[in-house]
């Protein structure tokens, strides 16, 4: 295991490991102990008591945070004709069809999100080996396979985040930057929490959220009292 930096050790010492912090307190503490030389992201990590091997317990989706994420997303749209024109008008960074698919297939990945119209998914499917490992494959559940390309581009540019439970039932989502006002981070966190509760699988048994932590990019995890949300 890599040796932790002095800064990390010093930051960790300020976190009470035996305590679950209320959300407002946790946000303030995370900002106070952040030592990054840049405007670090603030992320939350949900450990959910779900069995993602069961189709009805998989959690995946997208939502727009009230105050965005502080990051400008570069959006590629694979569409043709009228839909391509709509995507351009909505502010997509790159729009195209066959030639753009070929460019991506050749290794160009200078974007954060891809949106595609359903009629183009047959061709986009060829990019599975390129996009799959990067988590960039368009998906109807995250609103990135759609005929409403205007809404998709607007939502992404407005600060949409995607969430997905991994094999262990863990969901990691950014809720903003250290430079955000505390109240904006809290409101983003609460909005995300409402969504995570809303998508709780009906078949999930027992305690749904087994643990919840908040951390900055390089900072230590701060345990959250779920009741405070």
From TrEMBL:
<dbReference type="GO" id="GO:0006417">
    <property type="term" value="P:regulation of translation"/>
</dbReference>
<keyword id="KW-0699">rRNA-binding</keyword>
<comment type="function">
    <text>Binds directly to 23S rRNA. The L1 stalk is quite mobile in the ribosome, and is involved in E site tRNA release.</text>
</comment>
<dbReference type="Pfam" id="PF00687">
    <property type="entry name" value="Ribosomal_L1"/>
</dbReference>
<keyword id="KW-0678">Repressor</keyword>
<keyword id="KW-0694">RNA-binding</keyword>
<comment type="subunit">
    <text>Part of the 50S ribosomal subunit.</text>
</comment>
<keyword id="KW-0687">Ribonucleoprotein</keyword>
<dbReference type="InterPro" id="IPR023674">
    <property type="entry name" value="Ribosomal_uL1-like"/>
</dbReference>
<dbReference type="GO" id="GO:0015934">
    <property type="term" value="C:large ribosomal subunit"/>
</dbReference>
<dbReference type="InterPro" id="IPR016095">
    <property type="entry name" value="Ribosomal_uL1_3-a/b-sand"/>
</dbReference>
<comment type="similarity">
    <text>Belongs to the universal ribosomal protein uL1 family.</text>
</comment>
<keyword id="KW-0810">Translation regulation</keyword>
<dbReference type="GO" id="GO:0003735">
    <property type="term" value="F:structural constituent of ribosome"/>
</dbReference>
<keyword id="KW-0820">tRNA-binding</keyword>
<keyword id="KW-0689">Ribosomal protein</keyword>
<dbReference type="GO" id="GO:0019843">
    <property type="term" value="F:rRNA binding"/>
</dbReference>
<dbReference type="InterPro" id="IPR028364">
    <property type="entry name" value="Ribosomal_uL1/biogenesis"/>
</dbReference>
<dbReference type="InterPro" id="IPR023673">
    <property type="entry name" value="Ribosomal_uL1_CS"/>
</dbReference>
<dbReference type="InterPro" id="IPR005878">
    <property type="entry name" value="Ribosom_uL1_bac-type"/>
</dbReference>
<dbReference type="InterPro" id="IPR002143">
    <property type="entry name" value="Ribosomal_uL1"/>
</dbReference>
<comment type="function">
    <text>Protein L1 is also a translational repressor protein, it controls the translation of the L11 operon by binding to its mRNA.</text>
</comment>
<dbReference type="GO" id="GO:0000049">
    <property type="term" value="F:tRNA binding"/>
</dbReference>
<protein>
    <recommendedName>
        <fullName>Large ribosomal subunit protein uL1</fullName>
    </recommendedName>
</protein>
<dbReference type="GO" id="GO:0006412">
    <property type="term" value="P:translation"/>
</dbReference>
